[in-house]
Amino acid sequence: MKEFLIYFFTQGTEPEFALFTFAHFAPILMMIGVILLIRWKREWIRQYKHEEVFRWVLAFMLIIADMSYYWRLVGCPSLQPGPVENLPIGVCGWSVILSSYMLVGKKQTLFDIVYFWLLSGSLFALLTPTVLTFTGPTRYRYYQFWLEHTLGYVAIFYMIFVHGMRPTVKSAVKALIALLAMALLAYGVNTMIPGANYLYLARPEAAPSVLDILPPNFALRTAIIVAVILLMFALAYLPWYLIDRKAAKSAQIAA
Questions:
Q1: How high is the pLDDT of residue 210?
Q2: Residues with pLDDT less than 50, the chain
Q3: Closest CA to 94 of 80, 72, 110
Q4: What pLDDT, in 10s, does the model give residues 74-125?
Q5: Could you give the C-alpha distances from 93 to 29, 108, 219, in angstroms and in order?
Q6: Closest to 167 measured CA to CA, from 93, 97, 99, 244
Q7: What span, in angstroms and rounded, lies between the C-alpha atoms of 67 and 238?
Q8: DSSP secondary-structure letter at 29?
Q9: Are 35 and 157 in contact (CB under 8 A)?
Q10: Cα 214 to Cα 204: distance, rounded to the nearest angstrom
Q11: Which of 108, 111, 97 is nearest to 67 (CA)?
């Protein structure tokens, strides 16, 4: 039993996870299925007298998924827990925390931030989950990663379909300011701790990812990252812009 637990909670020395395989796409497809189910049953969920139970359970799952990452590090010294890689400075982790508070308190401001962070930054984690290279489906980290990264999307679409929340241009500004604050924190930590690479501002990831195409020069690299983020923010807001434009045209025709 001890050997199994050591194996399950640690990681391998050889690659166990490959991009664009069944192990990669299965959690994403499950996430999409849950979101579609919420959309289908949104009226029933909205009118259910204990609807808040759904939000509390989802919030609890988000917190446990995030905290168990650090519990695993503490329990497995072989993973070399330390400030170089494991401080809570990242878009994905904070998106999870903010999502849980958003669900419990139904906070529009938190929705504004999480919506753009998830659909802009965390989306790349779903497309290229390179941190799973040495932890396949037989390891705890695999399930922790996918729960942490997919439940956030379930949370924001739950608030959209069930509670009618939506982003605005001001929402994008809030999210951008919050992201800038985190980037400044990450930059400061990267300069103070040798080897730290929070938000991947210092260098590309060790494993292959979409960030490999960026130049190593810090200034140019940062400028490209900012441009990509702004583009992703615009794409995340585009569906709502089109909805508003269509509604405005319909109102003009009706008048």
A1: 55
A2: none
A3: 110
A4: 888 888 888 888 888 888 889 999 999 999 999 999 999 999 999 987 888 8
A5: 21, 19, 26
A6: 244
A7: 33
A8: H
A9: yes
A10: 8
A11: 97
* Structure token pair of residue 124: 């790349």
The tokens for 88 are 């809570």
Question: What is the structure's pLDDT at 204?
Answer: 62
Residue 94's domain comprises 2-254
Angle at 97 between CA 162 and CA 70, to 5 degrees: 140
Which of 113, 104, 120, 20 minimizes the C-alpha distance to 63? Answer: 104
- Tokens 């289908």 — which residue? 40
Length of the chain: 255
User: In the chain, how many domains are there?
Assistant: 1
- Check: CB of residue 66 under 8 Å from CB of residue 96: yes
pLDDT at 216: 65
* Burial grade of 245 (CB within 10 A; 0-12, 13-18, 19 or more): exposed
Residue 203, phi then psi, degrees to nearest 5: -165, 170
How do residues 235-248 score in pLDDT, each as one tens digit?
A: 999 999 999 888 88
